[in-house]
Amino acid sequence: MPLYSIVFKIINLGTNFLKKVISPTPFSKTSVSKVFWGEVWRGTFFQKRSSPKILFPKYYIIFLFILAGSASAASDNEVGIVDWPIPHLGFSQPVLWLGNDPVLGRMICPPLTRLDLEREASEPLIFKSVDEVKKEQQHVWNLTLRSGIFWWNGEEVTPVQILEFLKKELPNIINEKGSGLWTERPVHLSRDGESIQVVWGKAPPFGPFVLNGVPLWRVRGTERQGQFGFECVGRYVPVITERGIGLNPNEKYGIPRASFLFQNSEQAQTHKVKEALRFSMADVLSARPEERNPHNEGQCSALIKLPMASVVIWNLKKPMLQNPHVRNEIADSFPRDTLLLSGAGNWGTTSSSLIPEGHPGYSAVRRKKRPAGSWKPDQALKFSSVRGEMGLVEKVLLDGLKARGIAASLIPMNDGGYDGLMTGVFFPWPEMDLFDRFHSQGLSIIGGNDAAPQQGQLDSLLRDYRTSLTRTHPDFALLRKISHLLGERELVTVLIHHKACLELPGMIKRNADIREKDPDWFLALLAQLRSTI
């Protein structure tokens, strides 16, 4: 189904809230922190089409429950985390990717295994070791549990519990990670001491690190009733209150720690804590000259690279836009530098690549020479915005085009006549697996009449890269090829990649070393807090 059909289908489902949740526009009045964070963080037009997370408001009801929860008193040893996008914490089970969240997910629901971009390798975490061996005519994964892992209720995790978890969840994980294209199932699973053996009749097309980012969890029984229908093995136990989401140390790990309180900006104003780390997106910057010179950078203690970008998604129903050279030429006319400085206060980077700079799979997009006259600048362009109104991004973009002699206007999204759709998108970090977004047999929402002959090559690269992510060393060279091919096709034009401003008011040294490729960058940051041990 082409993009424009998906857009109308989703928007026609309902409310302004859903519009904001599905695709937030950076720098708008509807900031990332003012809509339900979990849906914003993962839900955009690059979300899987089959996922209920972008179609139903039930998670918004959960958010209302959070705001209506019981109050609790502030602790002198409590640190606030303000405006970090909160992943969905449902009542029955955590979302599959929660273990990849470097902040809340890493603290409450760490993954079985993970991808470390600094090492450019997958590694065990809850498992002590992950090995593949060929045993007679069979293929075996040996997964050995690390000692000293505890559930939220203080009970130590046992190999038997790991075995039961994998028996139940491994088929679901394989189906989710493979988008239904992997049909292989293990012959049997068994326990050998502290190790779990997953036995296959023959080597599957994927490796054991298909478990990357998957949190270990179990359903809470009637004797363990709490605010969540599940429990994980994190070093912190979450509690929902009207003040936010509190994190209390899991005492079984035996190290004294501070408590944390995750809040949005409104909660932080009403329920203050003694110390707080505050994240801000570029939409908090003013473009009014009396408040901030639009030609000056925004002031910030530390900038955190986000897997988030402002993009234009092209309407390939338009005959003119079916030519990738036309899309390339229009994209080269966008005033990216002006947008970055005036709109985002340099809280970001400009790049034509979908892959953010700093990721091992990043490479600069080098386009082929365009045929002369593929597009005439005197042809008027029409844009729409998912947000539905003129904001800072839209104004800077349109004014920049007009300054270059290109007629451009903003029209309502629902009339279907736009050439490009302006929106904010989030990318799957750290894997940057774009299979579901661009593979013809996946759940792609991006496509069009220019799919052949490059689509076959792109499908092959996307499939092979996804498979490599399940092994010890992902093939980031494949990702660079994917980035280059997508850059040639220009199905999506990246305007800027975003950064978040992290305010460090006296708690952390100003020259804090923040390395986003380190999966534990946030925990390393917390280690510098005076109030933690």
Descriptive tags:
4-stranded antiparallel beta sheet, alpha+beta, globular, single chain, 21% strand, 14 helices
Structure description:
The chain has 14 helices and 19 strands. With 533 residues, it is α+β, with helices and mostly antiparallel strands. The strands form 4 sheets. Strands 1, 10, 11, 12, 13, 14, 15, 16, 17, 18 and 19 form an 11-stranded mixed β-sheet that branches. Helix 9 runs antiparallel to helix 10 and helix 12 (454-468) packs antiparallel against helix 13. The protein is globular, with a radius of gyration of 24 Å. The model is unreliable at 1-73 (pLDDT under 50).
Q: Helical content, roughly?
A: 10-25%
Residue stretches low in confidence (pLDDT < 50, at least 5 long) are: 1-73
Quickly give the structural class. alpha+beta
| Number of strand segments | 19
Mean pLDDT reading: 78
Shape summary = globular
Distance between the termini: 53 Å
Biggest sheet architecture: 11 strands, mixed
Please tally the helical runs, counting DSSP H or I stretches of 4 or more residues: 14
Fraction of residues in β-strands: 15-25%
Gyration radius (Cα, Å) is 24 Å
